[in-house]
Amino acid sequence: MSIRLEVKKTIGIGIAAIGLFVLVQLFHVTLNKLYSHxxxxxxxxxxxxxxxxxxxxxxxxSWSILLEQLSLQRLFIAPTFLVAGLLYLVHIVSVxxxxxxxxxxxSSISLWLLFVNRVFTAVxxxxxxxxxxxxxxxxxxTVALWAGIGCTLLILGVIKVCGARLxxxxxxxxxxxxxxxxxxxxMFLLVSTMVLGMRRYREFHQEEHGMLLMIRGTxxxxxxxxxxMSSEQMSDVNHLMGFLTNTMAFYILLSGLVRQMVLVPYRxxxxxxxxxxxxxxxxxxxxxxxxxxxxxxxxxxxxxxLKPDETVALLVLNIDRFKTIxxxxxxxxxxxxxxxxxERLGHFSHEGExxxxxxxxxxxxxxxGYEDMRAMRNRIDDMVKLFDQPFHINGESYxxxxxVGIALYPLDxxxxxxxxxxxxxxxxxxxxxxxxxxxxxSVMQMRAHERLQLENDLRRALENEEFSLVYQPRVHLQSGxxxxxxxxxxxxxxxxxxxxxxxxxxxxxxxGLIVPLxxxxxxxxxxxxxxxxxxxxxxxxxxxNLSMRQFQQKKLVDVIQGILAYTELExxxxxxxxxxxxxxxxxxxxxxxxxxxxxxxxxSIDDFGTGYSSLHYLxxxxxxxxxxxxxxxxxxxxxxxxxxxVSTIASMAHHLKLKVTAEGVExxxxxxxxxxxxxxxxxxxYFSRPIPAEAFEKLxxxxxxxxxxxxxx
Length: 713
Fold this sequence. Notes:
Layout: H1 3-26, H2 28-34, H3 37-64, H4 72-96, H5 107-130, H6 140-162, H7 176-204, H8 209-230, H9 237-281, H10 291-305, E1 312-319, H11 322-329, H12 331-348, E2 353-359, E3 362-368, H13 373-385, E4 391-393, E5 396-398, E6 402-409, H14 416-433, E7 437-439, H15 442-464, E8 467-476, E9 482-493, E10 497-499, H16 501-511, H17 514-534, E11 542-545, H18 548-551, H19 556-567, E12 574-579, H20 586-598, E13 602-608, H21 615-618, E14 625-628, H22 630-633, H23 640-655, E15 659-663, H24 668-676, E16 681-683, H25 693-701
Parallel strand pairs: 6-7, 9-11, 11-12, 12-13, 13-14, 14-15, 15-16
Antiparallel strand pairs: 1-3, 1-6, 2-3, 4-5, 8-9, 8-16, 9-10
Helix pairs in contact: 1-8, 3-4, 3-9, 4-5, 4-6, 5-6, 5-7, 7-8, 8-9, 11-12, 14-15, 15-16, 17-19
């Protein structure tokens, strides 16, 4: 019901109550003739017990429900209605069932008990309305309980002791002045309470129906007081109507208090729990249910709803090269990509399929109801094809691929967490194998354990200085002279022996160990080059690879300058190699490269042709060299497309006034093809494998040779 309708209803009830009062006064004489003494003793106890029961309900609601929401108002409301309920109960028992109680009260004293009760509740109503909102400790409710009981005993004791000296309220004129003063005081208190309640409602609670109900109840208390003030004796119809109206007022107050103290806090609690569940079980980037929700869903599914022969497939999807996009384009672009992937998967899902975010760049796709494994495989194929369409980020299109790991229940796991773990293991295996998707096998778990062990060994290797460098020459393809060399890292593992970079660089990247390892490689390469210069050999540049994490460092230039200063190597004898993926964020990459160039260090783009470089930006990048990836060079003689790519890159480099180096030169035929394309330099096994510093010095520095002469081959 709308708040406007509630306001109209409150006004309507108030007008109806006043109209009832007027009608009773107009037909007062007639009603009193119809209203017999027997009717009074039949109806009056029923109303009285109902009023007492409502008071006890209000006490219970205020005293015991939702203790964490206990407020100062509730702390006063509870004893107020406890006292009122007890006094109403004693009043009714003493009037109607006097013989059943040992606490015998005369009719006059019983009427005074009702009168004092009205005064007490009116005073407490005003006090409660004036109290500020303040949360209280639940321990105070015991104090409120005993305060209510003590107050009741005090009122009963005073009335019992002073009963003989109190005026007889059964005959109005005998207590005319005192009665009118007390009645006017009660009316003033009730009107004040209603005015303050309306003011609070307008300022703070205009959307709360419970406050309107309490105002409505206070208004009926005022009408009840009008009936009492019009009553000439206890058996008067005005007295009965006042008691009845008072009971109705308390019932409406009960409804308002229940709403204010129980329903509203309960709904607020529900809303808070709902928000907590949203935070706890929903990914804040994609809006998808998270891993915790997936675990719950699987637990319930595996426990309750599966048929004996039904198979559940859990697919974990990992975005390939997401870290490159995130680091290059920024976290905002990365978050948008995650949202877009989640949205695309959500649109792809059918009934019985669910999408979850596993955190980071991983998603889960839950398939149920497939009994035919071929149909399931086709569905997975369709999912992979989803990513044939590019994603549009910052006005540009980017192709994103995913790796998928699959685990089946009950074939691969019989518990939810194990199923999730196995699917996650499978997706990492798929990434390592370079395939679109792969189903879990027990061998993968062993590999995952080995990978974890490898990361631990890497940390130890940095401390124990288990790494070493090897060096590979670069040769000028026209003159045959040694022009530069590249430093490559190797790991001398105490148990595994020599470990190649392809086996540990990816682990170092994921763990962050690539940063300290990269700095060690850079420092060691510069030191070795400086030693050769001090030994009198011809100075030549040395090339070192930079990782993505290193390139993204804000203090990279400071690190490079610090190493050059420490090794006393001139900047012109150092070249840094980056990959195309590092230039995704063009503006950021340009600034970093410009700073590096400013200190005199050369820059080359390694593995050129395998990434997504924009030629528009390439022309403006402050670089010195392009290195053609070995995958193109290896097949230039058997694949015309690869030959065309190499020729195009070489030609473009010449026009951009960049040097071009071909990697992976392994035979003379490849050499002749590259010479025909006017590539500046070659690097590969045709000239030399990567070798340690001592061997490099002995073979290539002590006696400079022409690499293209017949004698040198």
